[in-house]
């Protein structure tokens, strides 16, 4: 992955460096951070791709079908695109792992059926439930921000290999509700929604460009690079952790003064 260091930050921050400033909210990425990227690419993506055309056929004329088709037309700049053309575009995006909102929405619809019938589960690393539990006990809000749709994120945690974890998560953000993950304005939008000062929000991700964007919006950041990550554990400008255990004891922000 590539990216530019945030102005004013050193080119390298020590691996495992702790967070010292108060934290009111933690926002977490999914793929590579809280769950296995391999699970996404070898299980979920192929599962959805095989079912794109069938889903559109089965739901033809329904409001959700119309919404996805209109989204593909907007993204491709072809207002008269038919269903066959939409399938072609969706397949191309899936093959290239394009973060297109219509594709993410359709993947979420397809995965939801797989979760419901037991064909799928979401992968969550063993250290994640304890971290979420500790942050909840400390009064720190916990949110997810992923390119996958909010519905897909919720299903991932509701049907995880650790059971239903949705009770440990306060909310979810995606490309539609926040914006692209490599754009600082997306993090500013999340700050407005959470009503938490940027400097008291911690973002955890495995992608440097995303971390740079969050830092540019004034957030605290920490990279999570799992031991099997081929990119290694050096992320310029951000402290790096191999899992969430070193972040269990974040310094909570003081409560607001009484009115």
TrEMBL record:
Enzyme class, top EC level, equals hydrolase
Q: Which InterPro entries match?
A: Enolase-ppase_E1, HAD-like_sf, HAD-SF_hydro_IA, HAD_sf
Segment Disordered: which positions?
222-259
Q: How is the cofactor bound?
A: Binds 1 Mg(2+) ion per subunit.
Q: What is its EC number?
A: 3.1.3.77
The text of the family note is: Belongs to the HAD-like hydrolase superfamily. MasA/MtnC family.
Q: Which NCBIfam families match?
A: enolase-ppase
PANTHER family named among the record's database cross-references: ENOLASE-PHOSPHATASE E1 (PTHR20371)
What is this protein's name?
Answer: Enolase-phosphatase E1
Q: Which organism is it from?
A: Streptomyces siderophoricus
């Amino acid at each position: 992955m590539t990216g530019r260091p945030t102005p004013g930050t050193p080119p390298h921050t020590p691996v495992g460096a702790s967070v010292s400033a108060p934290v009111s909210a933690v926002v977490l990425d999914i793929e590579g951070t809280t769950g296995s990227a391999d699970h996404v690419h070898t299980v979920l993506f192929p599962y959805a791709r095989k079912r794109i055309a069938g889903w559109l056929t089965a739901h033809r004329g329904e409001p959700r079908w119309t919404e996805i088709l209109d989204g593909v037309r907007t993204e491709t700049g072809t207002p008269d695109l038919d269903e066959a053309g939409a399938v072609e575009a969706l397949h191309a995006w899936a093959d290239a792992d394009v973060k297109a909102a219509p594709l993410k929405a359709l993947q979420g619809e397809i995965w939801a059926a797989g979760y419901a019938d037991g064909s799928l589960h979401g992968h969550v690393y063993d250290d994640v439930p304890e971290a979420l539990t500790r942050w909840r006990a400390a009064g720190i809000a916990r949110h997810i921000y992923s390119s996958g749709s909010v519905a897909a994120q919720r299903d991932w945690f509701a049907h995880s290999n650790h059971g239903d974890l949705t009770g440990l998560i306060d909310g979810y953000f995606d490309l539609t509700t926040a914006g692209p993950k490599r754009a600082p304005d997306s993090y500013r939008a999340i700050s407005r929604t959470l009503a938490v000062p940027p400097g008291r929000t911690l973002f955890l991700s495995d992608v440097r460009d995303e971390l740079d964007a969050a830092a540019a919006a004034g957030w605290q950041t920490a990279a999570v690079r799992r031991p099997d990550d081929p990119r290694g554990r050096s992320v310029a400008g951000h402290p790096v952790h191999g899992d969430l255990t070193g972040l269990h004891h974040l310094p909570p922000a003081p409560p607001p003064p009484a009115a």
